[in-house]
Design a protein that fits this description.
This protein is an alpha+beta fold. It has helices at about 10-20, 25-35, 75, 90-100, 140-155, 160-180, 220-235, 250-255; strands spanning about 5, 45-50, 55-60, 60-65, 85-90, 110-120, 135, 180-185, 190-200, 205, 240-245, 260-275. The chain has 2 domains: about 5-115 and about 265-275; about 125-255, Gcn5-related N-acetyltransferase (GNAT) (Aminopeptidase, 3-Layer(aba) Sandwich).
Length: about 280
């Protein structure tokens, strides 16, 4: 078999392959559901197929490999000449193999990490005591707090410069508000943590952008925020959750909720896109 670009007739097969690959295919699955195949939106998807192996590519240059360990990436490379790439997100072994085939394994990246991939059945969550806590959307009075927190996150976690981090945070928070995707935990009425969903399917939500200010850490704030947001999602029909963990302390906090590691996930993000 050989690689070929998918057509609308392939959508049922693509959907089945993405569903079978969850939770490691959440970004591609969510983008396809929300923005369609070969549409004008920056996150609309195209796909290359070779048997059961897939490479999803968003219009803004995001690469999402969903494939077997033996995927023939070198055979795909000639088809991708002239394609823009801005990031590669996927199961670690698969993503690293694709980057090697593209000749980008050693290319400088703004953010380059393999993080533990964790999964939870929400019904089995160990819910912490949230007495005195409420979860709020990012309302206008909370916007400036959310932007400040996201700016710090972008500097410390995403390796952005302060000059880049602030305007990026402003745009991100505006998008979070528009999508109603993120929440702020209030404790005694004061904001103490933020959490959100960066992808979702019919019954699975992917946690992203969790942040607690440094002076409020080690109090379980992030764990409470995630738990309350998951309970909200459960009321809306979600039964499962997935996330990646940036450090050992976060991994311990998620493990306390009942999350269990199911693999590793690569985040390879460029400061500026390159053309293959």
């Amino acid at each position: 078999m050989s690689w070929r670009r998918a057509t609308p007739d392939d959508l049922p097969r693509i959907s089945a392959l993405l569903d079978a690959a969850l939770p490691r295919a959440m970004f591609a699955r969510s983008n396809l559901d929300d923005f369609g195949l070969e549409q004008d939106h920056p996150r609309s998807m195209s796909f290359w197929m070779n048997g059961d192996d897939l490479l999803g590519i968003s219009r803004q240059g995001g690469f999402f490999p969903i494939a077997s360990a033996g995927a023939d990436w070198p055979a795909l490379v000639p088809h991708l000449k002239g394609q823009k790439i801005s990031r590669c997100l996927g199961e670690a072994g698969t993503a690293r193999a694709l980057l090697a085939a593209l000749g980008l394994a050693a290319h400088p990246a703004q953010h380059d990490a393999d993080e533990p991939l964790l999964h939870l059945k929400i019904a089995q969550m160990q819910t912490p005591d949230t007495t005195g806590c409420t979860l709020s959307p990012i309302t206008e009075p909370l916007r400036s707090t959310a932007i400040a927190w996201r700016t710090t996150y972008n500097v410390n976690t995403m390796s952005l410069s302060p000059d880049q981090a602030a305007p990026t945070a402003e745009a991100e928070i505006a998008q979070y508000i528009s999508n109603d995707s993120h929440r702020i935990l209030l404790e005694g009425g004061a904001p103490v943590a933020m959490t959100g969903f960066n992808a979702r399917t019919r019954d699975m939500v992917q946690i992203g952008g969790v942040f607690t200010p440094p002076d409020l850490r080690s109090r379980g704030c992030a764990r409470k925020a995630v738990a309350l947001h998951l309970l909200e999602a459960q009321r809306g029909g979600a039964t499962q959750s997935v996330l990646t963990s940036a450090n050992a302390a976060a991994t311990r906090a998620y493990a306390a909720l009942g999350y269990r590691q199911v693999g590793h996930f690569t985040f390879w993000i460029l400061a500026e896109p390159v053309t293959l």
